[in-house]
Amino acid sequence: MSRTFYLTTPIYYVNDVPHIGHAYTTLAADVLARYKRLKGYEVFFLTGTDEHGQKVEKAANAAGETPLELADRVVKRFQALWEKLDISSSDFIRTTQERHKKGVAHFFKTVEEKGDIYLGEYEDWYCTPCETFWTETQLIDYKCPDCNRPTEKLKEESYFFRMSKYQEQLLAHIEANPDFIQPKSKRNEILSFVREGLRDLSVSRTTFKWGIPVPGNDKHIIYVWFDALTNYITALGYPDEGGNFAKFWPVDVHLIGKDILRFHTVYWPTFLMAAGLPLPNKVFAHGWWTVEGQKMSKSLQNVVEPNMLIDKYGVDAVRYFLLREVPFGLDGDFSHTALVHRINSDLANDLGNLLNRSTAMINKYFDGVVQEPADGNEVDQAYRAKTEGMVRQVDQYMDELAFSKALQAIWEVVSAGNKYIDETAPSTVMYHMLESQRIVYCLLASFMPRTAAKGLSYLGSEGEATEAGLAWGGLRAGMRVTKAEPLFPRIEEQGE
Ligand code: MSP
Questions:
Q1: pLDDT tens digit string along 166-178?
Q2: What pLDDT sits at residue 495?
Q3: What is the reported pTM?
């Protein structure tokens, strides 16, 4: 049986057009999906849009559209961006699709039949931007403790999920599975949240219409987070528990931003426990991007629009920058200066130069024909060992979702390559120089697919990067190497 790997991004709200924060999660997921495919896994990579709820309904009213018209319009923006970013997702789920609505209704009924959903009355506060319920004591000056925006008082009949019942089971699960919530600092936050006590959760609303009705009582609309989280199984065909569901569930990793951790590590696992389904293997929360030191917001007019970045700098430079600049899991700051600096120093100078110099040399000395490797002296052996060590290191870092460290490990070999050319008689070390780079480009295929394909084709290996290609020795005497064009032209830096 082939090994499988299932990974997901959050499904994005359609009240807003995509920005760099959305692009970040999807991009990280894409890099991981490509790497797992390279390693021989059968990968299911899911993304999509969250189209129900009060927030989307409000945005549609403000735009003079129906919620579905709004969703149909905005979903295209997401899909076009993913195409432009070379996102290799397997499926795109929209919560307005029949397959999803059917699955959510079934999931709700299953939990209800178990006795874990009951009808009661909700009397507390609601934050629409976060689609979150709060008690009065949790509010700060009657504002949402998460986003600091005004909340509204709700008093309505509501279905409740017996979340309190699962407190101990959830705690035991988090404690027994140290990797379930990552990074570690986030795991500790959730542990203390759960230890403080779980209250039953309101899972339906009666004051608006845009969503999935509660089965058997359509006065009630299912709470948008109950609806949205279920996408991770409806996309696999749930309630049919055969097919893709049997093949891919439980998910290997849910990639999310840190702001939606509680929904994924408290609500979702307890829903699944109630429905008698296995829990996710891992939930990984990344940090948030600020822009030139400030929070990204429409009112500050500093929202970074990924299409514009790609047009200006190229897709692979954007992919590289976002994953290299900030360790995955920490917050980071976006600035054009930092991006241009990375392009010039890492991509044009280090990576591009090494390829240009070495492919130019083999053409000058050997008409572009690869020679038998010279009898290795110590320097050559060390260079080969470093390259092989990089392959192992990158594998470990990818397992930890430490994308930035993986790129650093690759760049150590690239820098060593430039030094190697400077310090040795190049014509005798051609083989090692080229072979090391061939392996570098195989690894880079997950991060920068277009650049990797170009690099590999200059280095005589046509076609896709493969797992076998990560082993030393793929380049063989007699193969032809072409003189490379610059991969990344330098960009003028401000102040230059
Ligand atoms: N619809 C919910 C998710 C449901 S998943 C079952 C949602 N959507 S969202 O569109 O508001 O946000 C989606 C993701 O974008 C979140 O993971 C969030 O962390 C991420 N980001 C939004 N702004 C961000 C930054 N400024 N920086 C990094 N990521 C950010 O929440």
A1: 999 999 999 999 9
A2: 57
A3: 0.96
Quote the pLDDT of residue 252.
98
Contact yes or no for 212/231 (Cβ under 8 A): no
Q: Tell me the one-letter amino acid at 214.
A: V
Q: Where are the alpha helices (DSSP H) in 218-305?
A: 224-229, 231-234, 243-248, 261-262, 268-275
Count how many Cα atoms sit within 13 Å of the Cα of residue 140 in the half-sphere of its side chain: 6
Question: Who's near 22: CB < 8 A, 6+ residues apart?
Answer: 12, 78
Q: If we measure between CA atoms, which residue out of 299, 413, 395 comes closest to residue 351? A: 413
Residue whose CA lies nearest to ligand 1 atom number 23: 21
d(CA 251, CA 283): 9
Which strand (E) or helix (H) includes residue 44? strand 42-50
pLDDT tens for residues 390-444?
999 999 999 999 999 999 999 999 999 999 888 887 767 889 999 999 999 999 9
Angle at the Cα of 193 (from 22 to 195), degrees rounded to 5? 150
Tell me how far CA of residue 405 lies from CA of 12, 60, 384, 390, 472, in angstroms: 28, 42, 20, 11, 22
Residue in the block written with tokens 């009949």: 157
Q: How far is the CA of 18 from the centre of ligand 1 (A)?
A: 10
pLDDT at 17: 87
| Ligand 1, pocket-test mutation among 256, 298, 331, most atoms within 8 A of CB | 256
Give the pLDDT of residue 449: 98
Distance 26 CA to ligand 1 centre (A): 10
pLDDT for residue 1 is more than 70: no
Dihedral-angle region of residue 237 (phi above 0 means left; psi in -120 to 50 means alpha; beta otherwise): left
SS3 6: strand
* CA–CA distance, 423 with 429 (Å, rounded to integer): 11
The neighbour count for residue 484, using CB atoms within 10 Å, is 22
Q: Reply yes or no on whether the pLDDT at 49 is more than 70.
A: yes
